[in-house]
Design a protein that fits this description.
- Helix 8 (205-215) links the parallel strand 11 (190-197) and strand 12.
- The chain has 247 residues and is an alpha/beta fold.
- The chain contains 9 helices and 12 strands.
- It has a single domain (3-246), classed as P-loop containing nucleotide triphosphate hydrolases (Rossmann fold, 3-Layer(aba) Sandwich).
- Helix 1 runs parallel beside helix 2 (61-69), helix 5 (103-114) crosses helix 6 and helix 7 packs parallel to helix 8.
- It has a 6-stranded parallel beta sheet, with helices on both faces. A two-stranded parallel ribbon has the order 3-6.
Length: 247
Amino acid sequence: MSLAYFVTGTDTGVGKTRVSTALLRALHRAGHARVVGMKPVAAGCEWVEAEDGRSGHWLNEDVAALRAAGTLAVPSQFDNPYALPDPVSPHIAARRAGECIDLDHLESTFHALRQHADAVVVEGAGGFIVPLHDRDDDASADRDGPGWVTSADLAVRLRLPVILVVGLRLGCLNHALLTQEAVLSRGLALAGWVANLIDPDMPEQDANVATLRRRLQAPMLARWGWTPAASADDLADSLGWPPQSLR
């Protein structure tokens, strides 16, 4: 069976795509010829016209980056089953688009994609427990009820080792530790984590990273400074992959 990992973050905009693309490049360098990224749900897309001028499709920039970093081209319904136009929480974007995010569909699509790849990197949406769908579509509904579906539910369905992206900024310790607790409490393995600086003016960066290294129950795969222009290959150079625990 091919390798596969689930990349999540302490919040939205913390660098999940940077880590996912770097991981794809690192996996390819490690000898996995057919590597592919999957973004099950992407909220925030632009309409791209087809060359014939009579058709087109919705494209998310994260999905485009994953495709550029991978080596296996697949139809969009496999690497991005839900492409939602509005850049808001997935459950809201899906409602606006008239879509219903179905975990059964995402799970079967992932397994179909995995049959053709040597390694798959699945990038979650937003933070670990971002809502994907509320079947009741009612703000007063019980969020723990059967109608409330989150990205964490998808991770549990796929049963993949999780890689956590910690966005280094004030508050990251709480966010990282809460996310670790949510991952481990669901019986999932935390394979590693990446410290990604998203606030260059953050005070006590070294002290925060030191605390994370003591408290997170997985190896730190990389610590990236403020390098917004770094390519996936540049980042792969500094990614400690595979971690000692997986060798």
